[in-house]
Design a protein that fits this description.
Oligomer: single chain
Largest sheet: 4 strands, antiparallel
Helix content: under 10%
Distance between the termini: 37 Å
Shape: globular
Length: 174
């Protein structure tokens, strides 16, 4: 069965972990030969990040998985409310924390931004704004940078658990 790879992360020491559709996770040390691992999920993974010595993979139904052994074994660390439709789109690591953004189902009072400052063991959440989907998160120049789904709003935050600052709104996307 083929899988579409959606993201790859590295530990910076020659280990790569890829994630994709249908719960696909694979590891490589040369980017040519890949070994499929068991994730424990059949849902799509959308992104992966490395930090604090661990890999964190995120995807459908608010599920957040952690691997502390180089991507070989995975543990479910967070799962959203039953029946929820929140999906994570992006994850980034910086300044000692992970930040995950996605889509929230407002009727279930779900958050659309999650964070961990203890190596992915526990996760807190907050709502960026009703109807807002956080599509992309990156970490650069000592800050997290987030964009809304439609690209009309850009946010920044110095740490994963700090308040967001809106730096641009009403951006026209061509």
């Amino acid at each position: 069965v083929g899988h579409n790879v959606k993201a790859v992360a590295t530990n910076g020491e020659g280990l790569y972990v890829a994630v994709g559709t249908g719960g696909y996770i694979a590891t490589s040390t040369d980017l040519i030969n890949w070994t499929q691992q068991t994730s424990g999920s059949s849902l799509d993974f959308n992104d992966i990040a490395y930090g604090d010595g661990v890999f964190i993979a995120v995807g459908g139904k608010q599920r957040i998985y952690k691997s502390a052994d180089g991507g070989v074994t995975w543990a479910l660390k967070y799962e959203g409310s039953a029946g929820g439709s929140w999906h994570s789109h992006s994850i980034a690591y910086g300044n000692g924390g992970f930040m995950v953004g996605g889509t929230a189902q407002d009727t279930l009072n779900e958050n659309n931004l999650y964070f961990s400052t203890d190596g992915g063991e526990t996760w807190g959440g907050r709502d960026v704004g009703t109807g807002t989907t956080v599509l992309y998160i990156s970490f650069a120049n000592n800050q997290f940078v987030l964009t809304s789904y439609d690209g009309s709003t850009i946010y920044t935050a110095p740490t994963a658990d700090s308040s967001l600052t809106t730096i641009a709104t009403g951006i026209t996307v061509f």
